[in-house]
Design a protein that fits this description.
mainly alpha
Length: about 160
């Protein structure tokens, strides 16, 4: 609600999508009991192993305690066949394909909106770490002209 109340409804959709995904996965796990928990643990271990591989390829310097935890966790011998299936398949298995449709609609909101990008732009092509304008006053158009607001047209 805070995002929506501050003119960032587009960005609020990202949270809705994540909440929907988590709820469906939890439903799927509950229906499967211990086997579902085992799949979830395997999926997490697979994800961590891939992240560690990427960190090492990128030569990311990790704190010694994190390195120790990685070594202790191992990660070898993970059976990827036990990892979570594609989200659509999970939705089909719990008879929630209609919610998968909504999830796909919400997926379109994962990228920043022009409104948000413009709020953080300070002049042409200069991004800042804090909004430079009140969102309600941010132009909706891509143009650099003085026209702004709903229905503004680009002259570029």
């Amino acid at each position: 609600m805070i995002l929506t109340d501050n003119g960032m409804a587009h960005e609020a959709h990202v949270h809705l999508r994540v909440a929907m995904e988590h709820a469906i996965y939890l439903h799927w796990v509950v229906e499967r009991g211990e086997a579902g928990v085992e799949v979830l643990i395997t999926d997490q271990a697979t994800s961590v192993a891939k992240s560690v591989k990427t960190a090492r390829q990128a030569a990311v310097v990790l704190p010694p305690e994190v390195e120790r935890e990685i070594e202790e966790a191992g990660g070898e011998g993970i059976d990827d066949s036990k990892a979570l299936k594609q989200f659509r398949k999970v939705c089909e298995e719990v008879d929630l394909l209609g919610l998968y449709f909504m999830y796909r609609v919400e997926s379109g909101f994962i990228h920043a909106s022009l409104l948000t990008i413009n709020a953080y732009a300070s002049g042409p092509a200069t991004l800042t770490t804090e909004p430079q304008q009140v969102l309600a006053e941010v132009p909706y158009s891509c143009s650099r002209s003085s026209s702004s607001g709903p229905g503004a047209t680009s002259t570029a």
